[in-house]
Structure to design on (556 residues):
């Protein structure tokens, strides 16, 4: 008998945009800084193609009620993003509430995920903390490949990583890293990531030179080299705060300080501390430059003129990458950097197709709460009485005791057994919570989020910050706003006033999210019933004195 792999029909998802027109061709001499560069983000499915997106969001707020971050993750979901890399999250990830909030936000979009964050060992009392990174594998079928995850072992919080396993000895490690800006200890603020790393190094090695930017490169090269010695392929996603266009690096190996195996800090006297030298020593390829060679690339920082964000891959993985590109500002997250992305052939990366990862279903019945147990028992008793299972089982007891058993009795026994299972499942569902503690989606709440984003972009535009007109138009349509009316509001005061109204409206609607969701579902149910039973259209006359005014549809 031939083996047939399990089908993934209900899990296969395709991205929504597909074939975004390239306003700036890679063959043109002049490249618009706020245009899509490289390959267009084509329509894919999330089983055969592994899509990676990295963007510096300039900080996130991982609160479960943060509708803006939830909308950004929803955009990632709709575009089949399988791995999200966020350098500079600016979050104190040592606070459990922040980690739990991020996990819950991911749960709202994907059926499973693997999350890893990084932050420095210095503890902040508030939730905001400069620096830090986030790496997330999204989708249960991808998360099933994860075998290990971790963060910068030095305690400086400069990178996070997730390792996946393929066929045989195939190991692929994805690293999200953030390198601090070019500054000095005198100029940097007290709470900046630069100063955090400067203080940590000073505490460890007070007699050694203290340069966080150079040390980042040396330590990361040491970390990657150790992973490669263990057989790992590397995908490095980072905001390097360095331009590498038309530059080459030298071969300068690094070693662990003092020859210790536990310091995780590197030293290299001749090392120049540049990203291109790390690439040369670790044999990493800038995939965007490899697929789209140029003398000049679009700026990835909204107030800059250079490309600072990169996706670098090991030599074996170069052939697995289908396409790569840079998106417009504010396409995914509302930071001040562009998003970079690559699409990888999943079978070529891991040596096998990707299949569904089925998690065990959690029980709705909680035995610790006697009130819930009583409700469950009462619901189960009603089901057993309704199906007359007490009498049916009693009728089978006699033949079973007398060893008089027939095929018909076996069929009756199987029927009773099936009804018992279905009754238990029904009783469990009836006492399980049917709502979540997060904000329920509804069209009105979605419009409020798009309205907020529209006026935020308009404010950025008024401040002469580069904003994509396409993104403004997308949120204008999503908010169902009048284009002529909005375009007539040009003053800073008018825009700020509208932004405040949008914030207030989203806050108020957020408090009514359960009612809004219920109203939306009732409308959908009514529309389905009317479509199936056309005559009801004439019975439902709400604006007239006669006719039905309400249609109740019972739960199943």
């Amino acid at each position: 008998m031939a083996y047939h792999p399990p089908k993934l029909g209900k899990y296969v998802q395709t991205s929504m945009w597909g074939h975004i027109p390239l306003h700036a061709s890679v063959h043109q001499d002049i490249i618009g800084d706020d245009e899509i560069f490289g390959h267009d983000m084509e329509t894919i499915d999330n089983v055969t193609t592994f899509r990676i997106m990295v963007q510096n969001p300039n900080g996130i707020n991982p609160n479960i009620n943060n509708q803006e971050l939830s909308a950004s993750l929803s955009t990632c979901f709709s575009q089949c993003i399988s791995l999200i890399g966020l350098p500079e999250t600016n979050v104190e990830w040592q606070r459990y509430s922040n980690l739990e909030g991020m996990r819950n936000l991911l749960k709202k979009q994907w059926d499973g995920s693997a999350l890893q964050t990084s932050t420095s060992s210095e503890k902040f009392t508030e939730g905001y903390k400069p620096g830090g990174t986030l790496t997330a594998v999204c989708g249960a079928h991808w998360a099933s490949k994860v075998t290990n995850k971790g963060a910068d072992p030095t305690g400086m919080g400069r990178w996070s990583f997730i390792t996946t396993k393929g066929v045989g000895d195939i190991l692929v490690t994805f690293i999200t890293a953030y390198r601090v800006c070019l500054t000095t200890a005198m100029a940097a603020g007290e709470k900046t990531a630069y100063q955090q790393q400067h203080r940590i190094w000073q505490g460890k090695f007070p007699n050694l030179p203290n340069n966080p930017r150079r040390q980042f490169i040396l330590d990361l090269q040491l970390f990657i080299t150790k992973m490669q010695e263990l057989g790992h392929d590397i995908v490095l996603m980072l905001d390097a705060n360095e331009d590498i266009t038309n530059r080459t690096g030298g071969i300068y190996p690094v070693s662990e300080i003092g020859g210790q195996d536990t310091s995780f800090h590197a030293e290299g006297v001749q090392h120049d501390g540049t990203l291109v030298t790390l690439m040369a020593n670790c044999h990493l390829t800038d995939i965007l430059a490899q697929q789209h060679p140029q003398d000049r690339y679009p700026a990835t920082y909204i107030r800059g003129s250079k490309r600072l964000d990169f996706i670098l891959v090991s030599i074996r993985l170069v052939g697995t990458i289908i396409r790569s590109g840079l998106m417009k500002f504010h396409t995914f997250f509302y930071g001040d950097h562009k998003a970079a992305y690559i699409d990888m052939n999943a079978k070529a990366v891991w040596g096998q197709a990707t299949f569904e990862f089925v998690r065990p279903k959690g029980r709705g019945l909680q035995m610790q709460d006697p009130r819930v147990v009583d409700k469950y028992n009462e619901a189960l008793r009603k089901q057993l009485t309704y199906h007359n299972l007490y009498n049916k089982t009693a009728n089978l007891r006699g033949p079973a005791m007398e060893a008089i058993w027939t095929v018909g009795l076996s069929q009756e026994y199987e029927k009773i057994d099936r009804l018992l299972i279905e009754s238990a499942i029904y009783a469990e569902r009836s006492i399980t919570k049917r709502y979540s503690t997060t904000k329920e989606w509804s069209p009105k709440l979605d419009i409020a989020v798009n309205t907020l984003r529209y006026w935020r972009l308009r404010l950025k535009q008024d401040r002469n910050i580069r904003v994509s007109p396409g993104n403004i138009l997308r949120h204008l349509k999503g908010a169902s706003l009048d284009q002529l009316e909005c375009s007539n509001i040009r003053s800073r005061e008018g825009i700020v006033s509208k932004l405040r109204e949008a914030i207030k409206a989203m806050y108020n609607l957020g408090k009514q999210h359960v009612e809004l969701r219920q109203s939306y579902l009732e409308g959908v149910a009514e529309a389905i019933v009317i479509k199936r039973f056309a005559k009801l259209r004439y019975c439902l006359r709400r604006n007239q004195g006669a006719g039905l005014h309400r249609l109740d549809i019972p739960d199943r």
Q: What stands out?
A: Confidence is low (pLDDT under 50) at residues 1-11, 18-31.
